[in-house]
Amino acid sequence: MKPERLIYTFVSFASYLDKVWGKGTPVAGVERTAAVAHKHGIPVTWIVNSGSIAELGNQIRDWHDQFGDSVILNCPSFICDYDKGEMKHSLKRELEREWNILSHEFPWVQTKVVASGYVNNEMVQVLEDLGFDGVWGYCWEQVWWDGISHRGCPWGMWYIDSSRYKAPHREGGTVVACEWTSRDLHAAYHSGNPCLFSTDPNDVLRAGLCSGKDIRYWEHLFQQYLVNTESNDAVFFIQHQEAHEMEVSYNYSVYPLTDVEQSEEMLDRFFGCVRKFDVVRTNLPDAIRTYKTINPRTAPNSMLTGDSGIHPEMNAYTLMQGGTPFGPWPKTFFYYDSECQMVFTEGRTQPALLRNYVGKARMDEDFTESIPMVVLENYVKSDSQIDLEFNVGMTAPKPFGIAYWDELGGFEVAGIEPGIEYRLIQNKILFLRFSLEGQPKRIRVRLRKQNATQEAANKT
């Protein structure tokens, strides 16, 4: 585990709204959220607009100086179902106006990030034109909920292809996608309910996964991300809570006071958990700048996950979409890069899910691809060496991968076919990444134990 590779950010929606369920700037919720975060030295990234900047500007400037807080811009509303050229022109005008206000009030903000759960190609193109660095609000595997359907996109951070807003840019890109809030990849995938299994305080509270006195579920989730720092250069853990969900007032009463207080207690405990580890705690603009500095293109990302053993309650919330399945589910390996996303369950060499980003342009689909048969034609294993020979069946050209599950402590790759990329994951998986070209493919791999000769001598 390499905790210094985990980059933790906490984001809070703190914009002026005018909705049927609330109106105004959630000042009380902002102050409650700030108090619990700053108690633990956690910088907050506030999602603001011109309306809330007028009321919160002085406080945020003070918090920036004391705790490293920062801001990103709540994207002005835009309509997707009329002339695209006019929509782009209108959005560009409003973004410029709002950003000018933000940059005047917070001149130290150099990384331009916008917040929006609603994304389309035209929006990303406007962001590119205006020199924005990132967009916060992507929701891995989500459909329907809050009118947001992003199923098919990667988790974490990645460069957006502005002609295919749910897919990574093949080469480089300029605008980085940022997740709304980090998900429990394991339970979200197996249950089909990514909104419930996440780092959102209200969702896990309503589901009975956490309470003000018990955040073991979150602690397990955070540990999963920490462990995967071994296999990634950087792991980004993003957590979000709306400020208007942290107050009960004339303006906002989204949840009862008991829920607000429990959410505060949960965050208090979780921030204390984060502080126990030598992770990077920073604001979102700085995290996105870090991503762009170390990654000129979308970085491959992998996660090996396991079951928490903590199950949701059966109640009105968890039954809302027909019920929520729960585990235990087998260990699961998740992977994505600029060409594909794959999921493998323990013991299986071929993926259970393959999303192919190459040549796919329809954003009403989720890039799911057919999976060819994988046959292990040769397998020879001793204490010091493992020889594998896989045969991948005939299929259309596509990115692909194989996962070999075993106890691999001390082993290293001693021989492999040309053109095959590989990763050894936590001494449990040999992951092979390659492309299929429309013909069957044979892959030979040799694993050899390090210092095998010395180990044999020691046994005698």
What does this structure look like?
The chain has helices at 27-39, 50-67, 84-105, 121-129, 185-191, 201-206, 216-227, 257-275, 284-294, 452-459, and strands at residues 6-13, 17-19, 22-24, 44-48, 70-74, 113-115, 134-138, 157-161, 164-168, 176-179, 235-240, 280-281, 301-305, 332-336, 340-345, 353-356, 374-381, 385-392, 398-405, 411-416, 421-425, 429-436, 441-449. The chain is of the alpha/beta class. The strands form five sheets. Strands 1, 4, 5, 6, 7, 8, 9, 10, 11 and 12 form a ten-stranded mixed beta sheet that branches. Strands 13-14-15-16 form a four-stranded antiparallel beta sheet. Helix 1 packs parallel to helix 8 (257-275).
Search tags:
460 residues, alpha/beta, ten-stranded mixed sheet, four-stranded antiparallel sheet, 10 helices, 23 strands
Give a quick summary of the entry.
This protein has helices spanning 27-39, 50-67, 84-105, 121-129, 185-191, 201-206, 216-227, 257-275, 284-294, 452-459, and strands at 6-13, 17-19, 22-24, 44-48, 70-74, 113-115, 134-138, 157-161, 164-168, 176-179, 235-240, 280-281, 301-305, 332-336, 340-345, 353-356, 374-381, 385-392, 398-405, 411-416, 421-425, 429-436, 441-449. The protein is α/β, with parallel strands linked by helices and 460 residues long.
Distance between the termini: 33 Å
Global outline: globular
Helix count, per DSSP?
A: 10
Strand content: 25-35%
How many E-type strands?
23
Largest sheet: 10 strands, mixed
Structural class by sheet pairing and helices: alpha/beta
Low-pLDDT runs of 5+ residues are: none
Instruction: Give helix % range.
Output: 25-40%
Rg, please? 23 Å
Mean pLDDT comes to 94
